[in-house]
Amino acid sequence: MSIATYPAVTLPPMRAGETDGRYIDCTLDLGAPGDTFTSAASITITITRVDGVPATASDLALAGASYPTTLDTTKLIPTIWLIAPAASAGVGYVVTLSATTTQGRVFIRDAYLTVQALLG
User: What letter would DSSP give residue 104?
Assistant: First the structure.
């Protein structure tokens, strides 16, 4: 079994208080060798704070069953849904996506995401 890790990407920031989706395009990483994700359910998402402080209920989190992770028709672009509580404004996070691919590789991709204050 091989483990494929790739450079981290930066996702567009979220606003505190919103629930929104962010996609991570893995086309260049998986598409070139003809590999894909097996299913959205096979993708594991973990979220950690960049500053190393343990996460609490006031931090960025997966949106849960109401907004499950999805895959596009190519099975190369997952969309993850996140909730950014108001108290998470100004905090940076690392969102780690991991899954076993159809070719049996363990795929790991980190993405940086910050939460900005809600304007207005």
Answer: S
Residues of the chain by 3-state class (helix, strand, coil), percent to 5: 10, 45, 45
Q: How many residues does the chain have?
A: 120
CATH code, domain with 17: 2.60.40.1220
User: In whole angstroms, what is the distance from residue 45 CA to residue 81 CA?
Assistant: 10
10-residue stretch averages of pLDDT, the chain, 120 residues long? 74 95 92 89 96 96 94 96 96 95 92 89
Torsion of CA 83, 88, 89, 92, to 10 degrees: -90
pTM here is 0.90
Q: How many domains does the chain contain in total? A: 1
Domain that holds residue 71: 3-116
Spatial separation of the C-alpha atoms in residues 102 and 58, rounded to whole Å: 36
DSSP 8-state symbol, 102: T
